[in-house]
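does this look right to u?? iron/sulfur cluster version
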Amino acid sequence: MKTNIKSEILDWARNFYTCKQKQDTEREFTKERTLNKRGVLWLGQTCNLRCFFCYFTNKINDKDHPEHKFMSLDKAKEICFKLKTVYGNEYVDIQGGEPTIYPPIYELI
Ligand code: SF4
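got this back:
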């Protein structure tokens, strides 16, 4: 029998989130809202993958899109510095596109 991997993944995801939603209804949530200490750094919408669920494909496929190109290392460092010193963040989530293909990723980390 020929299987369709895309529909298998979608079925798995639907089942996973349905289970998670059931768990969530049994959980008690706090009413207190606090800012967390995680900053987010978006390096640019450059990616070597083409996930079918990606909501950035227009920016990834369009090399002239203003958000497509990875930012410079200096700018990324400046943002990290600001996240730490101005906003008091203790962690930074580095996102793309795909940050692991950002050429100076090791230096940035
Ligand atoms: S940006 Fe993320 S979701 Fe989109 S194609 Fe790349 S890896 Fe996949």
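The radius of gyration is 19 Å. idk if thats expected tbh
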